[in-house]
Amino acid sequence: MPTRPELPAMFRTLLAAAVGGAIAKWAHVPLAWMIGAMTATTILNLSRVPTRAVPNGRLVALCLLGTSLGQTFTAPVLQALGGALHWLVLSAFVSLIVGAAVSRMTARMAKVDTRTAFFCSVPGGIIVMTVLAARSGVPVAPVTLSQTLRVAVVVLTVPPMLTWLGAHGYIPPGSDIFNIERAAVAWVWLPLQLAISVAGGVVMSRLRLANPWMIGAATASASLAANGIVFSGVPLWAIDVAQVVMGVTLGTRLNRDFLLGSGGLALASIKSVLIVIATLALYATVLGLATGLPTGACVLGTAPGGMPEMTLTAKVLNQGIPLVLAFHLVRLAICNFLVEPGFRLYMWTERKLGIDPEVHTAARAEPEAARDRDRDGP
Q1: pTM of the entire structure?
Q2: Is 147 part of a structural domain of the chain?
Q3: Could you tell me which residues come within 8 angstroms of residue 149 by beta carbon, excluding any fewer than 6 positions away?
Q4: Tens of pLDDT along 59-68?
């Protein structure tokens, strides 16, 4: 619980976030409440105005989102996803390979070692990649910075890109197997629906899975939907509130010291993720055209953003919600099991090619040492 001195900062942050979301909604910005809230909170941070997220607010938001997403997993949808599973697996590998390939550029631009750049560039979840980096003996701070910026940049670029392109904006329900009607809200049964979702979140958190509250709620909700049981949909205003809370969480991470104290890593991370976004968007477009899968959903599913943010975008635009969630779940599973072996393969390849992983940090150290000598004199 926040202490008494923290309450004004929390209410001020929420007020600014709500105003930012309302302005973004008025301006017809896609994913308005989240982008507006994140932008407003970041502006406060950069202005050195104290901000604070609602304690456990993100967990509640993820549970609401997971409940709503899980209700799209009807039996026909699950059958269609089974038929597309090989494309989901292929796309996960493509995402990881593209991130690993771009890491060389990240290392060069940021003047960090290639091991750190690898975990900074591979598009896994923020928590997953920091945990895996720590296990591999890589500093956690730069990985946290890069992965946070990755999600923020994707949120600011991919939803507007889909909407402004026009062809893949909002998709009417019933357009294809993955776009179904929203479940109606039944206020009498809504508490039961949410209680089942919370139970799923508790189970997943006990299993120590990444993103347990969203995955647990979605799994519980999907288990009911697959058997034709939906007690109640989630009100749209609750999803908007979830957007604001998630935007605040991202915005509070992007404080002045966090960004300006990173040297060239922040700029290098932004440049790298833009290249990854463009590469994967091109791949997703080809995948959609070649397989008949919805192209917009493929773009969101392969985008190097976080699972909550991309699935929320899919919900707002009605872009094949279960397909987008399935893309990210498969990538998350492969990240958990294969990023560490992939990292060892990456390091083995560097050794075989005679590449020094510290070469870029040495390049940065030389001019810094020269400046020190000039300052100290002969």
Answers
A1: 0.81
A2: yes
A3: 254, 266, 269, 270, 273
A4: 899 899 989 9
